[in-house]
Task: structure prediction
Amino acid sequence: MSKLTSVWVFSDNLDRYAELLAGARQWGEQVNVLVQGAEAVPFVKPLGADVLYVLAEQSALQRVENYAETLVSLIEKPTAAQTPVTLILMSATKRGKALAARLGVLLDAAVVNDVTSLSVNDEGTFAEHRMYGGLAFGREKIITPIAIVTLAPGAVEPITANSSHDCTVYQANYVTPRQEILCKERRTKSLSSVDLSKAKRVVGIGRGLVSQADLSMVQELATVIGAEVGCSRPIAEGEHWMERERYIGVSGVLLKSDLYLTLGISGQIQHMVGGNGAKTIIAINKDKNAPIFKYADYGLVGDIYKVVPALIEQLSR
Result:
């Protein structure tokens, strides 16, 4: 067995469908995709679904978790299978994981979150995922007829859209759950439009940065080399100098970039879980014993406040 009989794909984030469809085509024979609202169809349809189901949009106060019963009504549960024949594949967002948990209960199915790779062969279906805060990877054998997986961002190379692809589109009726989760209020927050998992070049900044004002220096270097700016966890969640979407690490973004230039990043394993996917890693740190140099393809021992301006000057010529 090299592929599962069917894969069902759903995401609360449209931008994740290209990755999810790439994995679905790799792991399943029949790929069924569920989207929220008709406006998502033109975006998702060219990505290669065999069948597309449009979930009826609910009010702005509805939560994604409320779709669990609707998905169950569409997915036929295998009865005699001893190993997975059906895969439910979703993005590893907070809402995706919450929906996965409800589906796991309703379908009596195994759930594996933050999966970085999935293998289907004659020995069974195995999911590899991060554990212990990124200090290790676990490899789980899934033995329930339905496997529910939330895929970590950057785990799979996104599929290329094909504008000529066509598929059958159905309207799915909303099944009201016995206990709906309703959002009573929404408060806006500033969000970054950046998606570091798709960036070809990334400049990452860590604790070596003294003040938030110095981010302008880092951004200037990134602009010169055509890169996006990312950061380690303390910069995003400790100092709040950058958006959460720019955090690279175990519970953040996994890079697939051609280049990752780190500035003042020590290189703890929790961060490198996110950075190790880059094809080339260049590290600049004034501590010659920093762990980052064990991962780097090229390393420079130096003060970023001296090295970065020099790089900007040279590369701007």
About this structure: The two ends are 56 Å apart (CA to CA). The CA atoms of residues 103 and 252 lie 24 Å apart. The first strand starts at residue 4 and ends at 10. The chain has two domains: 4-172, 196-316.
